[in-house]
Structure formats: C-alpha cells, structure tokens
Amino acid sequence: MAIDIAIDILIEAGDWGEEADIRPLIEAAVAAAIRSGGIEVPEAAELSVLLTDDAHIRVLNRDWRDKDKPTNVLSFPGSDPDEPIGPMLGDIAVAYETTAAEALDAGRPLAHHISHLIVHGLLHLFGYDHEESDEAEAMERLETAILADLGIPDPYADTQPIDGGGGDPVETKAK
C-alpha cells in the first residue's frame, strides 16, 4: 500500500542535526503507523512535525494543556475530534532534551524513542488516547505492533508509566 502523506519538518531548536538525516526516521515511523495501525488517511494528507527543545515545548504545554513543564511530545489535531479526519492531519511537536534523556534513562537508542514518539503523536491525531486505563492499554498494544513493524523492541516491556511532564505513558522507567 502506498502511503501518500506530505510531511513538513521544521527543526526549530535542539540537537536534532540535519533534516536530511532525521527525515527518513520520521517518514518510516509515519508509514509504519499508517500501515500497521490500519489508519485511513485522506487523499493529499499533510502532517507537520516540529522538532524543538524543552524551552519551547514547555511554552506549548503551558499554553495548550495548562502544564507548565516540558514534555516529550505534543499533538495538535488538524480537525475537530467530532469531525472526520481532513487532509491536514495536524501537528506533532517533539522536544529534544526530554526525548534524549528518556532514551538514555531507558537504555534505548535515541532513534527508537524518536520513532516511538512520532507514532504516539500520530495516533493522537487519529483520536487515540490514554486517559483511561483501557484506552492506554489499547494504545500501547498498537504502538508496540507498529514499532515491531519497524524492528523496534517493545518500549513497554519491563516498564511502568510515569508522569515526566506531559503525563504520556511513553515516558517510562524500569520497575
């Protein structure tokens, strides 16, 4: 199945490196999420990915979620949750320092954690959530299957959710 999503990547801040180096990682994560997640994507779909730092994501988290602290990933849907998904899927913002620290703490390659956060953020754009335990379990199972499609080990194996800023269960630590 061909996946036709225009992905706009903006590296605003942080040690992300060059777009040409990170673009294949982001594109692979998005393609796997669409393929393995059974997500229906509208024709001529667009996605925006902001790669930033803790300082900016803290402002976004404060302004949009009333949480005045950095987090790893934020998602901003391109359409109202009660409406069908339109061609503008939405925006995903990822903070470098938090993401790098989480990967290091978990003993995982940074590329694996970035892929996980892109998948996690994209699933939020398609209405997946983790506010309730049953929703969280379903979302984690789907993330694990998508990441397996990329050859990435289960990020939830031998881990437990923690609230490291955004309350997202992708922020984990060993038991």
From TrEMBL:
PROSITE patterns in the cross-refs: UPF0054 (PS01306)
Binding site for Zn(2+): H120, H124, H130
Single GO MF descriptor: zinc ion binding
A UniProt-annotated Pfam family: YbeY
Cellular component terms (Gene Ontology): cytoplasm
Alphabetized UniProt keyword annotations: Cytoplasm, Endonuclease, Hydrolase, Metal-binding, Nuclease, Ribosome biogenesis, rRNA processing, Zinc
Entry's EC annotation: 3.1.-.-
Region (Disordered): 153-175
Requisite cofactors: Zn(2+)
Co-factor binding details: Binds 1 zinc ion.
Top enzyme class: hydrolase
Gene Ontology process terms (BP): rRNA processing
Cell location: Cytoplasm
SUPFAM superfamilies registered for this protein in UniProt: Metalloproteases ('zincins'), catalytic domain (SSF55486)
Main location: cytoplasm
InterPro entries: MetalPrtase_cat_dom_sf_prd, YbeY, YbeY_CS
PANTHER family (alphabetical): ENDORIBONUCLEASE YBEY, CHLOROPLASTIC (PTHR46986:SF1)
HAMAP family recorded: Endoribonucl_YbeY (MF_00009)
Family classification: Belongs to the endoribonuclease YbeY family.
Described function: Single strand-specific metallo-endoribonuclease involved in late-stage 70S ribosome quality control and in maturation of the 3' terminus of the 16S rRNA.
The protein, known as: Endoribonuclease YbeY
Annotated organism of origin: Prosthecodimorpha hirschii
